Every structure is written in structure tokens, then in C-alpha cells.
Amino acid sequence: MRIDVITIFPDYLNPLREALLGKAIQRERIAVGVHDLRNWTHDVHRAVDDSPYGGGPGMVMKPDVWGEALDEICGDGTGQVPRLVVPTPAGRPFTQRTAVRWSQEPWLVFACGRYEGIDQRVITDAARRMPVEEVSIGDYVLVGGEVAALTMIEAVVRLLPGVLGNPASAEQDSFSDGLLEGPCYTRPEVWRDQPVPEVLRSGNHAAIARWRRDQSLERTWRRRPELIEALPEGTLDARDREV
Ligand code: ADE
């Protein structure tokens, strides 16, 4: 998978080179390009923003600079086009489902806005040539799209084949079955007066699976009841309903 990020703060994306993502780059599972939006400015001040039409606080990112940057980065000469992702608190929610869908794509481009946002005509124009999604990572406001892009890239890249050491980890994630994951334990058997739950030391695999499912249901019910309501019909068996 190829991933490009356009930003006025390229260093903000340095964590892409660390840990799991860094390894994915080294192993050539992903190729990452981070581009400084100011490279597409033509004035001495290298301005990327201007005051909003209609008045109001803040500044809006200029369409001409973004337009040229996207023309260059999203046209690789082969006719292939990327999926363009625009992080914004005004976007559709980014979820695990989105991450799974994007993990099938050959090429993603993230357009990170700052200030009040990017002139809407940039998004409309890009959508004439490529699929575009405006997405939010949650109901809070960050100062820009960079941290949101990092978050989404990490969620997508860990799903790619050969990136996680143990592919079963991704299959057992919170959300992969619509529920939160339950608690987990490692040695020692007793720590600060707290023993590891007996069943996990029993070696009874069926009992362990049932216990984990119960924990998962109970935690989801307490912390995120709306996820239980959203489960597709028939997901819960008779035993689940007793929890
Ligand atoms: N930019 C600022 N806040 C954001 C959010 N919550 N999600 C995505 N991009 C953002």
C-alpha cells in the first residue's frame, strides 16, 4: 500500500517512522510520502491560508495551493488514482469498519487541514477525479488533521498482511465482533493480593472461551451499551442473553 500525507507540519508525521509503522516501511509493506504543502506556494510569505468569505473567526486554507499539491501528488502518470482522505471534525465517523475497508486500497492520500479548514471547492474538485472521504476520528476538535491522519494510518496499516506478528491479534480486536475485548492477565499468578481468575488457569478451553465471551459482553454492556443495541440480529445466542 502507498500512503501520502500532505501537511504544513511534516515533522508532525515523524512517528510514522517508529515502531510498527516504521517496521512496515522497512519491510516494504507500505511506502510513505510526507509532503510539505508550502512547496506549492508561489508568494514570498509562502501563505497557505486567507480570511473566510462571509466573515467569522479563523483562517481558511487556500484552494489554489491545495489544488496544485493534489494535482501533482494524486496523478502518478499511470492513470491510477488514490482514495483521498480529508480529516475534519465535520466528517463521517472513522471506525474499525472504515479501517478494514481502506486496508484493501492500494493507495491512500491524507490531506491535513489546519485553521478553520480547507476551502470546500478543493474537495469538490478532487471528487471529480477520485473517491474522497471527509472523516472524523471522534467528537472533539484537534488543532489540525495530522494526529487524526496518524491515528487512521495506524489503524489501517496494522490490518495489512505481514504487519502484525500474530494475525490472530487483529481478528480478536475490540470491535471485530462488535464487542469490546475483556480483561487480560499474565504472570505472576498472584500480584498485590490479586489472583488471576481461576478459569484462565484451568486449561479448559471451552470454559475459557465462554468466560471471555461473558466478560466481553459485560464490559460492552457497562461501557458502551449502544454497541449491544447495534449488533446484527442473531449475534447473541441464548447463553449470551443470560449475562
Ligand atoms: N481535525 C480536527 N479535529 C478532528 C477530528 N476530530 N477528526 C478528524 N480531523 C480533525
From TrEMBL:
Residues 1-229 form the tRNA methyltransferase TRMD/TRM10-type domain. Keywords: Cytoplasm, Methyltransferase, S-adenosyl-L-methionine, Transferase, tRNA processing. It catalyses: guanosine(37) in tRNA + S-adenosyl-L-methionine = N(1)-methylguanosine(37) in tRNA + S-adenosyl-L-homocysteine + H(+). The keyword Protein biosynthesis does not apply. The keyword Repressor does not apply. It is an enzyme of class 2 (transferase). Homodimer. HAMAP family: TrmD (MF_00605). Belongs to the RNA methyltransferase TrmD family. Specifically methylates guanosine-37 in various tRNAs. This is tRNA (guanine-N(1)-)-methyltransferase. It comes from Saccharopolyspora erythraea (Streptomyces erythraeus). The lineage of its organism: Bacteria, Bacillati, Actinomycetota, Actinomycetes, Pseudonocardiales.
